[in-house]
Design a protein that fits this description.
alpha/beta, 39% helix, three-stranded parallel sheet, 4 helices
Length: 112
């Protein structure tokens, strides 16, 4: 299975992963994705680079390196090399940062 990592919006100053519309999560689940999401540090309490951007990179690494092993103990097979990143507003910026810094490939899912 592939994994979808979602980041919420909120202009980097407000928001949590609970803001992600549930029907978007349902669409990804229906399309066969395992869905993960992570909150990230907000401004002004944390600087953007060492806060939200670092949190996004850490979330991606955790999904790639740790989550497949955790899910395999539950009988779910996830390929840590098949991760799609999705973001809303500021979260889309974090998704683009991940694309620019890693092996993440841009793609269009057609489900959201």
């Amino acid at each position: 299975m592939s994994l979808a990592l979602l980041f919420h919006g909120g202009a980097f100053i407000v928001g949590t992963r609970s803001m992600i519309p549930s029907h978007h999560i349902d669409d990804l689940l229906t399309a066969g994705f395992v869905v993960a999401s992570a909150d990230y540090s907000l401004l002004p309490q944390a600087p953007l680079y060492h806060g939200a951007q670092q949190d996004a990179k850490d979330a991606y690494r955790w999904c790639r390196d740790s989550l497949p092993g955790l899910l395999s103990t539950e009988g779910v097979s996830v390929d840590g090399n098949r991760i799609v990143v999705v973001g809303y507003s500021a979260g889309a910026t974090l998704a683009l940062v991940l694309v620019s810094l890693s092996r993440v490939r841009l793609c269009s899912l057609g489900v959201l």
